[in-house]
Amino acid sequence: MAQNLIARHLVDLDSPVSQAMRYASNGGKGLRAFLVLESARLHGIGSSRAGFAAAAIEALHAYSLVHDDLPCMDDDDMRRGQPTVHRRWDEATAVLAGDALQSLAFQFLVLCDCPAGAKLTLIGRFAAAAGIRGMVGGQEMDIAAERAAQPLTLDEITCLQAGKTGALIRWSAEAGAVMAGENHSPLGRYGEELGLAFQIWDDVLDVEGDAETVGKAVGKDDAAGKATFVSHLGLDGAKRRAAELVEAACDALSVYGNEAETLREAARFVISRRK
Amino acid sequence: MAQNLIARHLVDLDSPVSQAMRYASNGGKGLRAFLVLESARLHGIGSSRAGFAAAAIEALHAYSLVHDDLPCMDDDDMRRGQPTVHRRWDEATAVLAGDALQSLAFQFLVLCDCPAGAKLTLIGRFAAAAGIRGMVGGQEMDIAAERAAQPLTLDEITCLQAGKTGALIRWSAEAGAVMAGENHSPLGRYGEELGLAFQIWDDVLDVEGDAETVGKAVGKDDAAGKATFVSHLGLDGAKRRAAELVEAACDALSVYGNEAETLREAARFVISRRK
């Protein structure tokens, strides 16, 4: 659905940048959109009301991948089983498509259906999670670590990931509560644990996965001598840690009872996925 | 003031990306922030209430300059009399600083002081003006034109500039009216005429200005054989057209009487400036 809203917004455009925006929004797991919609459902908010919030987080996520893949960043050729945007088009198109996807995310947030005050909280938290104290800050630490002589400690990696992927996964999990006017919800804790488990599992897949299934290059971290959860904890230790986090994430949802079973399943999926 | 709010937001950070965000926000003319504050004053909204809207537009403008200067875009070495961000740091830092400045712009908008409904209108229009149907769309046309065999027609340049610089200058001029709950204001017309005059004058400065005063390379358009307002209208014709637009912009403000004199002076400044 998130992809549909993005495609619908761009329907009358066919410039390379608009094509690249659509292209970059396709083929993902849709985890973040799923979290938004489930979190909304838990608070009695249907998918037609929360759809734009789900589309917003997928647009923002797509932008972050397009920019992270750039030659000056992680320099990746493949993403979701397809050439990255700068390989399929060029770097200028990739920079602009990412930029416009970020703007589009905020346009979508304004359109989602909840009271104005709740919507402003949603937008403010989204912007904070995306910026220098959230996703961009984490990406900066990641790039710096690749160029540094000293590998990161486990605490540093945890802090990096809390920004790079954690902040927006947490936002997604909390979105429904915020839309319903609940600014402090157990979903925050759930999102935080889940986000970290998600990233640990990404490190596991970089070791255990095959590029075709994962849809992007694997083994990159090890080849680069990069410190990861796996290099610190070992493969089994990393899997154990991820499982503990998923358990804690599920426990955080106890107040919602069986209604939250789908979110618990999603958490378990995160540490069983092959891509 | 806009610079101060950006600096204050980043006060406890000193990573290269946060340094680059501050650096990129310094030394501009502050035209857009000025328009926001004057537009607000005309509607009885003081600078303490509109300050975050002014900071938002300057953060967004700074991001657009950092990305436009990248090697894959306009490949510029100097901006506002200083090395561009990717020259002073590197490309990754420039991409990330621009990305985080865009997020910061939206954080600031959420903080500005007006009723929630008006603020959402302000945010929605801002996001639209920044995106593929506004600034990014204009920048895409500009990059495509540089690579195309055929120079652009005058209509095409006008359309390009309406997106690239016009949409956000218009937003700035209207911001105070929107904050006051007026969604259709003569300031929209004023902003549109002013934005186009501003861009025509940029083309004039590219021919007449010297690099030291202007603060960036000049003569680039002519060297690249690029179609501009000057190449179509001639130097005198372009100046005449800019003056007509400024007159129309000033006329659009008649309903505000003498109260709008500062905005009229700003419009006249736009076509007398040397940088």
UniProtKB/TrEMBL annotation, chains A, B:
<dbReference type="Pfam" id="PF00348">
    <property type="entry name" value="polyprenyl_synt"/>
</dbReference>
<dbReference type="GO" id="GO:0015995">
    <property type="term" value="P:chlorophyll biosynthetic process"/>
</dbReference>
<keyword id="KW-0414">Isoprene biosynthesis</keyword>
<comment type="similarity">
    <text>Belongs to the FPP/GGPP synthase family.</text>
</comment>
<dbReference type="InterPro" id="IPR000092">
    <property type="entry name" value="Polyprenyl_synt"/>
</dbReference>
<comment type="function">
    <text>Catalyzes the condensation of farnesyl diphosphate (FPP) and isopentenyl diphosphate (IPP) to yield geranylgeranyl diphosphate (GGPP) needed for biosynthesis of carotenoids and diterpenes.</text>
</comment>
<keyword id="KW-0149">Chlorophyll biosynthesis</keyword>
<keyword id="KW-0479">Metal-binding</keyword>
<dbReference type="GO" id="GO:0046872">
    <property type="term" value="F:metal ion binding"/>
</dbReference>
<dbReference type="InterPro" id="IPR033749">
    <property type="entry name" value="Polyprenyl_synt_CS"/>
</dbReference>
<dbReference type="GO" id="GO:0015979">
    <property type="term" value="P:photosynthesis"/>
</dbReference>
<comment type="pathway">
    <text>Isoprenoid biosynthesis; geranylgeranyl diphosphate biosynthesis; geranylgeranyl diphosphate from farnesyl diphosphate and isopentenyl diphosphate: step 1/1.</text>
</comment>
<dbReference type="GO" id="GO:0016117">
    <property type="term" value="P:carotenoid biosynthetic process"/>
</dbReference>
<protein>
    <recommendedName>
        <fullName>Geranylgeranyl diphosphate synthase</fullName>
        <ecNumber>2.5.1.29</ecNumber>
    </recommendedName>
</protein>
<keyword id="KW-0602">Photosynthesis</keyword>
<dbReference type="InterPro" id="IPR008949">
    <property type="entry name" value="Isoprenoid_synthase_dom_sf"/>
</dbReference>
<dbReference type="GO" id="GO:0004311">
    <property type="term" value="F:geranylgeranyl diphosphate synthase activity"/>
</dbReference>
<keyword id="KW-0125">Carotenoid biosynthesis</keyword>
<keyword id="KW-0460">Magnesium</keyword>
<keyword id="KW-0808">Transferase</keyword>
